[in-house]
Amino acid sequence: MRLIIEEGNPGSRQMALDETMMILLSKDIIPQTVRFWNFSPTTLSLGRFLSVKDWVNEEELNKFNIPLIRRFTGGGPALHDEKGEITWSVAIKGNDMMKAYETIGKALVYSLKLFGLNGTFSPINDVTVEGKKVVGMAGAMKRGAILVHGTFMFDTNLEYMSVIKMPKVKEIERGPAKSRVSTISALLGEKISRKEALQKIVEGFSSVFQLKEGELTEIERDFSEELKYKYNSKEWTYLR
């Protein structure tokens, strides 16, 4: 299985590349892939089916100068701190999204175990430690190809979580977003570096997938470059 390790890029490029990988894998043009990367700058991503007015605090978003991007996957809003998160993507063949979440959940629980943390996969698509969410994931399927991507919050600045607004009913039920999440650094009581987090997450995913380092193909680069227009479009971002 191909392993790609990258640095940060804007959300439009990252989402365009993930969607490209799903499309090309569905046509057997590229191999199954695990990719580690991050958003740069810090970005708020919104699930495909959510309403901006219901889930985004645009006043806080503007205060922190954080861009908003809509994903092609479902799920809730996610704050991606460029200095405190490793983001990952898994492109695999299959038609069972729940099985994909469970398999990836095992890799992430193993990664946390390497830090001495007891992680738990919490269906449908979270990994928690001591009841606090440290990993969220979201996925999409296309003709036998599954793309799942998500967070690995090793040192996310939780003050940024104020950019997420929850419908009142959900907030009463679950509590504010900031109260439900944590980071590896906070749980350990010491600052974890990106280098250390990357080492552990690669080892965790290697416990589930047979990984071999590779590179993006020319067609992935070209196709994703063309697809960036979608994610730079206000029509897409403010679809709902």
UniProtKB/TrEMBL annotation:
Please report the organism this UniProt entry assigns to the protein: Acidianus manzaensis
Q: Keyword annotations for this protein? A: Ligase
| GO molecular function term, any single one | ligase activity
The residue ranges of the BPL/LPL catalytic domain are 28-213
Membrane-spanning ranges: none
Q: Which PROSITE patterns match?
A: BPL_LPL_CATALYTIC
* Listed name of the protein: Biotin--protein ligase
Domain of life of the source = Archaea
